[in-house]
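Researcher: Quick test of sequence recovery. Tokens follow.
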């Protein structure tokens, strides 16, 4: 027997066909499952399906298909065009049977263009719940809808001569299709007859985050809007959903409230989960004794952090350790892993971090947890594959980029923990890094970041989508319920509701709240006047940009152009040589920096100077050398080994200046050899600025730290500082429960330009 082909457009269809495939063994290899790109989290789901071994997957992006082809030999030309654009070619001879759920889809039309005999699985259109809670068919609007589809030039729903048969929940009740082709194939019976092995398979594929062992129930989502298809009224759909919700609530022995949304209904968490949340809140007030194998003396707040991490871990939840930079998130995490091992549990933990921090993790593990094996993933793709296969215990440290390239190597890999360091790297849910980490399967998931929210609330959603998928709803629902009301409408109730939901799973402590022995930090804003030549160039370009701004703001491409223009303005504030060849009229800020650095060095101070422009660092390096000051420099081009060597050289030596690019050196470095931090140019994101400051102002610092922000007067830089303050208000309002909110729109951009 040849393998079957299953074509799926929804997660439900994947579930049904996965079970069908598992019950239809094939000696000639696994069955093939085509996943439309409309299936949620397509790549992650495909990776888990492939790892299970029941099917091999193919992802087809139907959106690349432009439309219907007409004229002579249309079906042949349409098939070839589909294959070229969508990257998949169907071979009917390779398959025993072809199953498709939506033959009015682009893939369904392609099947007809290929003259392929297919089996139509009628399981969504016209389906509703009968009195016995089983699927039956409602015919009220089906005929009109079918007629509209047929009018598009293709034959659907059994009219096509290529449709071999139609499978329905109850063939006798389904009059939409030709009776001769109808057979009964009950999905309800299929789902009610699952073996233990099948249930385990379903959990591996669809349950990306384990449920708490002691939870009596979990959130139930009923997707699919029948109203949108015209099959029933909104009141009828709501009643159907509530009936199912009440049934599940009774089974869970929990009192739940029902919330009807446009895509279904969600149930609040059962009482068992509420109990666990109460326990988590209480855990923040306790202090655990550190594990015996930990080679460090934990501070009181770090013991509290260990207790909180342990409570989450024991309950099967994930969480964000969002301590301020320099408070020791790494050592608290290592303490958790050692505690797990001392209690007799296996530790096979994957740490995902920026490439620049991989060696730092190995060094910290060797220092604080020398008995816990820790290795860094490195080498070619083949070498990394072997290293992953051989890894069975301890810590494996990889980078976000490596994980993106090696993601398939982790499919089916047993892991106890996945730990994301600098978890803001997955703030964009659509990024390859975010998609890759969300394919990983482990009993425990934690995120380490001092900045869970840098710019948008969607960043917090993306991290929670990794920790506990579904807890903050699908993103569309999150945006409707929280993001839009909070950001656009300053809705205080929505902010409080979000804070209450995330608070048990975020532990955030600030330096000023927990460290009595950290030396003082003095922050100073130093304003410089531009040189006359610099001011002339700046104001001329600013005026030109102002004239273009109104039209640019209304157009997405124009906004990118506007952003480039704003970047140029910032470069003119730093030194016009960054963007103007032959400029020789000086920079007021550069003159100020040389004077400041010279005076500090003469007093015995050692300083970190940050800029987001690597070309500016080159100009600073030249100017400082001319002034007789020795420097070190670290940029994104510096490899990991050299990076650590530079850090050691600076901390143990007497070179007074370390020039660092903000992006390359803003995280993961311990530079307590410096007692001065200078930010040469402000960045939009205040979190990046604070992270850079904390390279020096952290545990281990014995001297007071002076922080200087250099700002060009009457320029865009002054408006950036104001914007930073507003962004901080957004983060604090959600994470810390403070009253301030943040709103930014096109008018704010106008204000930045106009001042």
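Model:
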């Amino acid at each position: 027997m040849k393998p079957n082909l299953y074509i799926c457009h929804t997660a439900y269809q994947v579930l049904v066909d996965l079970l069908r495939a598992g019950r239809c063994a094939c000696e000639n290899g696994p069955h093939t499952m085509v996943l439309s790109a409309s299936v949620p989290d397509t790549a992650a789901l495909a990776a888990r399906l492939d790892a299970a071994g029941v099917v091999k997957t193919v992802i087809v992006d139907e959106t690349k298909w432009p439309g219907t082809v007409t004229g002579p030999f249309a079906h042949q030309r349409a098939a070839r065009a589909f294959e070229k654009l969508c990257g998949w070619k169907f071979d009917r001879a390779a398959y025993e049977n072809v199953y498709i759920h939506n033959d009015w889809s682009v893939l369904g039309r392609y099947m007809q263009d290929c003259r392929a005999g297919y089996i139509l699985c009628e399981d969504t259109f016209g389906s509703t719940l009968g009195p016995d809670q089983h699927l039956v068919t409602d015919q009220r609007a089906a005929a009109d809808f079918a007629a509209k589809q047929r009018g598009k030039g293709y034959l659907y729903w059994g009219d096509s001569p290529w449709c071999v048969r139609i499978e329905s929940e109850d063939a006798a009740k389904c009059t939409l299709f030709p009776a001769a082709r109808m057979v009964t194939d009950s999905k309800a019976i299929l789902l009610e007859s699952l073996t233990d092995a099948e249930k385990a398979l379903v959990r591996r594929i669809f349950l990306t985050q384990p449920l708490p062992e002691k939870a009596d129930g979990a959130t139930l989502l009923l997707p699919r809007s029948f109203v949108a298809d015209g099959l029933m009224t909104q009141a009828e759909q709501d009643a159907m959903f509530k009936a199912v919700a009440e049934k599940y609530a009774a089974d869970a022995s929990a009192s739940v409230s029902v919330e009807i949304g446009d895509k279904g209904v969600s149930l609040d968490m059962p009482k068992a989960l509420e109990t666990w949340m109460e326990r988590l809140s209480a855990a923040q007030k306790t202090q655990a004794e550190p594990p015996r194998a930990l080679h460090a003396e934990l501070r009181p707040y770090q013991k509290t952090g260990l207790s909180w991490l342990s409570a989450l871990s024991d309950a099967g939840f994930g969480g964000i350790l969002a301590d301020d930079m320099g408070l020791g998130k790494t050592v608290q995490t290592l303490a958790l892993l050692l505690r797990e091992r001392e209690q007799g549990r296996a530790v096979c933990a994957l740490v995902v971090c920026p490439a620049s921090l991989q060696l730092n993790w190995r060094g910290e593990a060797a220092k604080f947890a020398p008995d816990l094996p820790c290795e860094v993933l490195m080498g070619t793709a083949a070498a990394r594959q072997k290293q992953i296969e051989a890894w069975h215990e301890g810590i494996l440290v990889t980078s976000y980029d490596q994980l993106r390239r090696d993601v398939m190597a982790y499919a089916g890999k047993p892991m106890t923990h996945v730990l994301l360091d600098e978890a803001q790297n997955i703030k964009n849910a659509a990024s390859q890094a975010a998609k890759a980490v969300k394919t990983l399967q482990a009993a425990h998931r934690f995120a380490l970041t001092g900045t869970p929210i840098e710019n948008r609330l969607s960043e917090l959603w993306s991290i929670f989508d990794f920790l506990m998928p579904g807890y903050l709803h699908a993103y569309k629902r999150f945006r409707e319920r929280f993001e839009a009301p909070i950001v656009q409408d300053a809705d205080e109730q929505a902010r409080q509701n979000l804070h209450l939901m995330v608070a048990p799973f975020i532990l955030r402590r600030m330096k000023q709240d927990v460290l009595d022995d950290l030396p003082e930090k003095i922050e100073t804003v130093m304003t410089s006047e531009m040189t006359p030549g610099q001011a002339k160039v700046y104001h001329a370009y600013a005026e030109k940009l102002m004239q273009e701004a109104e039209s640019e703001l209304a157009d997405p491409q124009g906004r990118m152009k506007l952003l480039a223009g704003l970047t140029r303005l910032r470069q003119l504030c730093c030194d016009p040589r960054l963007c103007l060849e032959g400029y020789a009229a000086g920079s007021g800020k550069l003159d100020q920096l040389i004077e400041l650095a010279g005076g500090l060095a003469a007093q015995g101070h050692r300083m970190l100077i940050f800029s987001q422009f690597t070309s500016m660092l080159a100009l600073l390096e030249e100017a400082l050398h001319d002034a007789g000051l020795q420097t070190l420099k670290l940029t994104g081009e510096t490899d990991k080994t050299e990076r650590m060597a530079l850090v050691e050289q600076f901390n143990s030596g007497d070179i007074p200046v370390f020039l660092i690019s903000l992006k390359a050196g803003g995280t993961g470095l311990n530079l307590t050899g410096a007692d001065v931090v200078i930010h040469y140019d402000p960045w939009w994101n205040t979190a990046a600025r604070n992270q850079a400051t904390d390279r020096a102002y952290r545990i281990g610092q014995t001297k007071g730290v002076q922080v200087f922000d250099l700002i060009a007067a009457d320029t865009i830089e002054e408006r950036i500082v104001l914007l930073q303050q507003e962004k901080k208000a957004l983060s604090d309002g959600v994470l810390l429960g403070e009253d301030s909110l943040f709103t930014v729109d096109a008018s704010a951009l106008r204000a930045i330009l106009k001042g």
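The CA atoms of residues 454 and 639 lie 27 Å apart.
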